[in-house]
């Protein structure tokens, strides 16, 4: 997954993502209908990556 690679290669971005806590992430780029409000796929994917980072920080999964 590209997002997983992005946050693995740029730990500072991972810290920013982790700073969102457990908040729902809503992707609101208006020019991308597929990834925004109707389905919010990007927000859900970011939440998944955030959960994986949290598990890595706890030592429960090994980073890819």
Give a written overview of the molecule.
This protein has 64 residues and is mainly α. It has one domain. The chain has three helices and no strands. α1 crosses α2. The longest helix has 17 residues. The protein starts with a helix and ends in a 7-residue tail after the last helix.
TL;DR of this structure?
With 64 residues, this protein is mainly α. It contains three helices and no strands.
pLDDT below 50 for ≥5 consecutive residues: which ranges? none
How many structural domains can be distinguished in the coordinates?
A: 1
Average pLDDT for all residues: 85
Structural class: mainly alpha
Largest sheet descriptor: none
Distance between the termini: 10 Å
**What share of the residues lie within helices?**
40-55%
Strand content bin: under 5%
Number of strands: 0
> Radius of gyration from the CA trace?
12 Å
**Secondary-structure element order, N to C:** HHH
- Coarse morphology: globular
Structure keywords:
single chain, mainly alpha
Secondary structure elements and their pairing?
Blueprint: H1 2-9, H2 11-18, H3 41-57
Helix pairs in contact: 1-2
């Amino acid at each position: 997954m590209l997002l997983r690679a992005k946050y693995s290669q740029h730990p500072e971005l991972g810290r920013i993502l982790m700073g969102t806590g457990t908040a729902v992430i809503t992707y609101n780029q208006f020019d991308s209908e597929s990834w925004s409000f109707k389905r919010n796929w990007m927000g859900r994917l970011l939440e998944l990556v955030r959960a994986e980072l949290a598990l890595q920080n706890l030592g429960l999964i090994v980073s890819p």
